[in-house]
Amino acid sequence: MLTLSDVHTYYGKSHILHGISLEVQPGEVVGLLGRNGVGKSTTLKTVMGLVQPSEGRVSFEGRDITGLAPHRVAHLGIAWVPEDRRVFRLLSVIENLRTGLDRPGLGEARRTMLLDKVFESFPILQERRHQAGGTLSGGEQQMLAIARAMMLEPKIILLDEPTEGLMPRMVGQIRQIIDVLRQEGVAILLVEQNVPMTLDVSSRVYIMEKGAVRHHGTAAELRANDAVIHQYLGV
Predict the structure, then answer these.
(1) 3-class DSSP assignment, residue 36
(2) CA 224 – CA 182 distance, rounded (Å)
(3) Helix, strand, or coil here: 30?
(4) Are 55 and 66 in contact (CB under 8 A)?
(5) Model confidence over 181-210: pLDDT tens digits?
(6) pLDDT attached to residue 2
(7) How confident is the model at residue 135 (pLDDT cuts 50, 70, 90)?
(8) Helix crossing, 168-183 with 138-150: angle to 10°?
(9) Alpha-carbon distances, residue 90 vs 85, 96, 151, 186, 233 (angstroms)
């Protein structure tokens, strides 16, 4: 579904991604682990077209999307939930969600269905639907960011550090929504520092170090390999 082949990305003269290759199959949750600063977020930004690779190829459903403009990538069915959430702070919850609904060809009945579906998954957002996004707690803003991505009915979500800074209860809720998305057939490429949660929700895992993939295997294999976890993740 999503494939990166030998991707190199620079920020100015700084070589950030050194030949990244990975893939995500339809409906699959794939974890992307590694210490801070190894290039995980840059990998997601490269997929979204926010950063242009200097070499390599990004393909989606067999189509070359390398360097495609972000809005065109989104139209293909790829949604991005950034690490800093980027909710519209002055807009209400419902207005934030509607930014993902105002697109051609989407009828009113479908819009209502999508909103009802999100509110079923995130009851707190329905309670706070008239509250400004900037006044929500960190966990509620994360839910809003994920819910806004769901409005696009994506085929895959690029999810960047969704549990960062959240209380354990909120972490559990984020994990539940990842499970729901997987059950609905939405693929997820998950960048996360929470190793146990990532191994629980993912089928396969890639581990990055210094801008390159150093290890790849199933979550079950990695869970049983303390040496690899300690070497690359310091856990």
Answers:
(1) coil
(2) 24
(3) strand
(4) no
(5) 998 899 999 999 899 999 999 999 999 999
(6) 97
(7) very high
(8) 10
(9) 14, 9, 19, 30, 38
- H-helix or E-strand containing 45? helix 40-48
For residue 220, how many other CB atoms are within 10 A of its CB?
Answer: 13
Contact 208, 7 (CB under 8 A): no
Alpha-carbon distance of 109 to 154, in angstroms, equals: 18
Q: What angle do CA 123, 78, 137 make, to 5 degrees?
A: 35
Counting Cβ atoms within 10 Å, is residue 209 exposed (0-12), middle (13-18) or buried (19+)? middle
* Residue 68, amino acid: L
CA 1/CA 125 separation, integer angstroms: 31
Global pTM reads 0.91
* Residues sharing a CB contact under 8 Å with residue 70, sequence separation 6 or more, in sequence order: 48, 49, 50, 80
| 207 φ, ψ (degrees, to nearest 5) | -115, 130
Lookup result for tokens 């509607």: 98
Reported as a single tens digit per residue, the pLDDT across 138-186 is: 888 988 999 999 888 899 999 999 988 788 888 888 888 898 899 889 9
User: 72, 89, 77: which is closest to 145 by C-alpha?
Assistant: 89
- Angstrom distance (rounded) from CA 121 to CA 132: 20
Instruction: Evaluate whether 189 touches 156 at the Cβ level (below 8 Å).
Output: yes
